[in-house]
Amino acid sequence: MLQTVEAEIDANGNIRLLEPLPVTKPRRVLVTLLAESSATENGAGNATFTDPSPASETRRQEQMAWLRANAEQHGGQYVALVGAQLIGTGKTFRAANEAARSAGCREAFVTYLPKPDEVIEMGGWR
After folding, report:
1. Residue 1: its pLDDT value, please?
2. Distance set, CA 97 to CA 20, 54, 61 (Å)
3. Beta bridge mates, 41
4. Average pLDDT in the 64-90 region?
5. For residues 58 and 22, what is the distance between their CA atoms, to the nearest angstrom?
6. What are phi and psi of 85, to 5 degrees?
């Protein structure tokens, strides 16, 4: 099963998960870098990402709650969210992202939402 979790990456490439992720064996992951934060865009490139702002943490919690609550209705497709608001959907990441951009949202969180009974196997290292 695909699972989406939020993480932060520092300037050295070290990744820190923002929530527990129980795994029983080594797994492969895909890492998507989101748009830079406003602190970085304003020249504060050395800003640390160890203490997310209350607003970003609230937004992340809203997104995760929305994903859990809407797996039945939107499972099997990519969804674009801003907080708990659905901005667009698509059969591919690109389609959902383009739907969000067409709606005027360039900062949407886009992820695949599996169906509740969907089992997805991905290759891994041995």
Report:
1. 56
2. 27, 25, 20
3. none
4. 91
5. 22
6. -105, 125
* Phi then psi dihedrals of residue 50, to 5 deg: -85, -20
What would you measure as the largest C-alpha separation in the chain, in angstroms? 45
Amino acid, res. 34: L
Q: What letter represents residue 116's amino acid?
A: P
Is pTM beyond 0.85? Reply is no
Separation in Å, CA 102 to CA 28, 66, 89, 117? 32, 21, 11, 31
Domain count, the chain: 1
pLDDT of 86 reads 94
Domain residues for 107? 7-113
Q: Is residue 91 part of a domain?
A: yes
Helix or strand run (H / E) with residue 93: helix 93-102
Q: Would you say residue 38 lies in a domain?
A: yes
Beta-carbon neighbour count of residue 118 at 10 Å?
A: 13
Confidence of residue 46 (pLDDT cuts 50, 70, 90): very low
